[in-house]
Request: fold
Amino acid sequence: MHFEILVEDISGKTALEILIPKIISTEQHTFKIHPYKGVGHIPKGLTSASEANKRILLDQLRRLVQGYGNTFSKYPPDYPAVLIVICDLDDKVLCAFRRALLDVVDECNPQPKTQFCIAIEEGEAWFLGDLAAVKAAYPRANESVLNKYTNDSICGTWEKLAEAVFSGGKEKLSKQGWQAIGLEKTNWANNIAPHMEVDNNLSPSFCYFRDKLRGLTRQ
Reply:
């Protein structure tokens, strides 16, 4: 089986390139990850809210899903393909957000086999689901901050991780701007993901992704 995976930033791509081979056999299955420059919003009309070259994930979702529908319809039956879209919940309402995503797929003809995986609250929740991996990557991490974290809670997850592992915490990192924050998120992915034990992660949204990925390979 082949997986086309859309993520909202470079740090997500970095983490998944390390984690996916821990979840499924990359000798039997293939995958390609496409990073975007933010999550955006699903447009209410049929027209995208931004130009394609701006690479905002949800703004372009209808065009992307339809394109994959056309492409996957040409794949041989013995080597099917699946589209996986991974995005943060942020401040959205989960049920309504998932329904809006599924509606986009329902509008397409042909429809690609599609799976949406929503990180609650942000991708950093998947790192915080494995505190042993965080501590292995950052031995001087603030354990009091880590131990107070509730898995998949809406709490400002990247800020929580910054408080635990970044010198100066979230306040210092925030003052450096979004480009620096994005770079640090990628550093976290590079440093933490290699230590993660995918079968022992306590983030429900990570476990959902892991189990869906494995389940699809068994179909």
Observations:
- The first helix runs from residue 10 to 23.
